[in-house]
From TrEMBL:
Gene3D superfamilies: 1.10.530.10
Coiled-coil ranges (or none): none
Keyword Membrane: yes
Keyword presence, Manganese: no
Name of this chain's protein: Transglycosylase SLT domain-containing protein
The Transglycosylase SLT domain, residue ranges: 215-315
Length: 353
């Protein structure tokens, strides 16, 4: 039988070890004929008598590593194509995709921030003032300048007394602490209350200053005692402009520092203006007709009755300000205690915190 053209083991299949044999079909060996010749510099076999042709005489020829290496030395492995592994591709392309997402998020954030800041913040300053003279005699309103921050009895006591019943059972304005002491005693509350109540980042020093400035500004115009405004802010939001809104059964939304009736929410793009608007809403009433402290003082005279009206929308027929009246039972007692120095002491109000 005439010998077939030579065939060579190229390394594509499992390597042979020592003299152990492996069998490969002519078809499999055909795939690497040219490769083997080029690797060894061997020309195509000229005829049946070429020494390499002894390995192509049968359809399945037994080849050993020793047979092949004796011809021209060990065959080199089939060269690998240059390129990246699948894992490397995943890492590279995955990192690129993540970087692209981060860049897009940053760009979108910047655009939103710029757009938010570029939009005008429109609100009209109110001239609403307390006119009920009883409110001046009982202390909810004053003709004194808010620049007098040392008014009151000093720092008071960080203690809680449970007040209940009619307005006359609550402490008189002559027992209230000064605005300066009340502010300083609660300064740490202003600095930490947002995060503590899961309302987002804490107030910056500038935001805290803006809150004080807004209280002083609206007190001067409205004639509401700045201590009363501060006490209500602490009661409603603990001084956090980002405080979440509540919604009444009738759909009234109460946002921000003073949880005012369909009032203004905090706007980070116009921080100082939105803080002033929130204090105005709670002090002088909202554009939607929600009553502020001015309207409640005009209606009830007493600051404690005004506090009940602000929280509940009305005074219960019994006149008992410790009744919830559809809102918070401890509200008026808490406000009274804030006005006399309470900050951290445990509440003694039933159901209070």
């Amino acid at each position: 039988m005439a010998a077939k053209p030579g065939r060579y083991y190229s390394g594509q299949y499992s390597p042979l070890v020592g003299n152990s044999a492996a069998f490969y079909s002519n078809n499999e060996l055909d795939q690497y004929d040219d490769h083997a010749r080029k690797a060894y510099g061997v020309p195509a076999p000229p005829g049946d008598d070429h020494p390499l042709n002894q390995y192509g005489s049968q359809d399945r020829q037994q080849l050993t590593y020793d047979n092949l290496t004796s011809l021209k030395g060990p065959l080199p492995q089939r060269p690998h194509k240059a390129g990246w592994s699948r894992r490397r591709k995943c890492v590279v392309f995955g990192s690129a995709a993540l970087l692209l997402v981060i860049i897009i998020a940053i760009v979108v954030g910047v655009v939103v921030s710029v757009t938010h800041r570029s939009q005008p913040f429109n609100f009209t300053l109110s001239n609403a003032q307390v006119t009920n003279q009883t409110a001046f005699s009982l202390g909810g309103a004053t003709h004194n300048s808010p620049n007098d921050t040392t008014d009151g009895v000093g720092v008071g006591a960080d203690a809680y007394t449970y007040y209940q019943g009619v307005a006359s059972n609550f402490p008189p304005a002559s027992a209230w602490v000064s605005f300066e002491d009340m502010w300083n005693s609660n300064l740490q509350v202003f600095k930490t209350s947002c995060k503590a109540n899961n309302h987002g980042p804490n107030n910056s020093d500038q935001m805290i200053q803006d809150i004080m400035d807004a209280i002083q500004n609206r007190s001067s115009v409205s004639l509401v005692d700045h201590r009363f405004i501060l006490a209500v802010i602490l009661q409603e939001s603990q001084g956090c402009p980002r405080a979440g809104s509540t919604t009444s059964a009738s759909g009234v939304v109460n946002p921000g520092l003073m949880q005012s009736h369909n009032g203004t929410s905090y706007n980070s793009g116009h921080s100082a203006d939105s803080i002033l608007a929130m204090v105005q809403d709670g002090t002088q009433g909202t554009a939607s007709g929600g009553d502020g402290l001015v309207q409640n003082l005009d209606m009830y005279g007493s600051p404690y009755s005004a506090a009940r009206g602000y929280n509940s929308g009305y005074i219960p027929k019994s006149g008992d300000l410790s009744e919830a009246a559809g809102a918070t039972a401890c509200y008026v007692s808490d406000v009274a205690n804030r006005l006399t120095g309470w900050v951290y002491a445990a509440s003694k109000c039933p159901g209070g915190t």
